[in-house]
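The authors assume throughout that readers already know how a fold can be written as discrete tokens. In essence, backbone conformation is discretised, so a fold becomes a row of integers matching the chain in length. A single example would do more here than another paragraph of explanation. For illustration, here is how one protein appears when written out as sequence plus structure tokens:

…
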Amino acid sequence: VGGSNDTIVHPSVQEGAHSISNLVLSLEFNSSGLLSGIVQGGARANVTQELAAYRNAVGGAYLLIETSPASALPVPVQVMTVNGPVMSEVIQRFDCPTIVSFASQRISLMHAGDQDTVRVTHDIGTLQPYTELITRFRTDLKATALESDSTGLESHRREWDPRGIGANYHAVVQQASVIETQSVNDDARQLAVLTTHTMGAASLTEGELELMMIRRLNTTDNQGPAPLSEVEPINVTIALLF
């Protein structure tokens, strides 16, 4: 609806991953089509994001029991960049049938106002049995600590537990963050992940944050409820705040 002088602006579509930006943020991508950096104002962080899977899990009462780190899925087989008047996004499609029947994600920036979050929407198919799928962010933040909430009303500093991977997973109701605890001139950086539903999060090495998105486990440690065995496709949306 409008006068004769109105112009309709159509989105442009390009093959491959290209930098996208709005008034606040710029996102950089590497030659494989994966996220490689976030820039906001005068601050920048190397931020690489990947999908990865745990394959040797035994289901615990609420958390996974793992002995080996998650292995990254292959890089996307198809990547497109869409720039439009409302939002810009990089769309990635993964092909790894030994892990999941299909997987894709959209990394999006909205253009209205001072939008300072990055939306990441995952579309995930059916997992193979005994598989857990995570999204993992590796950053160049130094001397980092993990903070997360348990009820949505507070944030807790999570200390490292030497018992291993499962002992370092924590409930996340709304947000989890990796925070620099040492900085020059008080210029500490922080990367937070905002969630739309409760999930688990861990920081297993400095500057790293991973979130458990979906599990398909058929075994238990007999110490509590049966493990989650999700077989239906699922949409998981998170937001990054740098």
